[in-house]
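Hi W., the zinc ion complex you wanted:
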Amino acid sequence: MTVGGTDGAGSGAERTASARPARLLVNVADLRRRLGQRRVEPIEVVLPRQTVVASSTTDGPVVGEVTVESIERGVSVHGHVRFGWEGECRRCLELTGGELEVEIDEIFQVGAPDDSDLLPLDGDQIDLVPLVREAVVLSLPLAPLCRQDCPGPDPDRYPARTEIDLAEEPASAGGDDEPPRDPRWAALDELRLGDN
Ligand SMILES: [Zn+2]
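Structure:
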């Protein structure tokens, strides 16, 4: 009457499939056999919701395509992705959003990288998800506008809020414990302040 572990294996495989983090692994071993060899790779990935200041990605997939090409000491990845975003208009405070297309242009290099912008190439596979996520995050609008000539808040709905109030509000509604910030945002914040 003893039942072995035979049916445990199947359910375990299903469980890991559904809980798997997003990855877009591309095998580059064949490309790297000859310099200049290239291949187009489709991209379709659902990322966790990414939020920067006043805008976020929507729940839909990030889609696009990249060309992976064999170069000296590694591979280059060049292409574009599209994704949906939404956020609060900085003037009227209504929800706005749309679709953005962003370019991807990265180099994976074997060994000690020539500079810090290059990504390490270890083994035969590259994961495109981190660079897709970075491209998406860096292109999210920091101060969205629903339209260029947005007249500003409806005074009946937002009587007490002014531009100064909004500027002093923390970016997240979460309260005291804000997550640690990527230092790269400091440069973007300066651009945002200069825009006002
Ligand atoms: Zn607006």
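Residues 6-19 form the longest helix (14 residues).

W.
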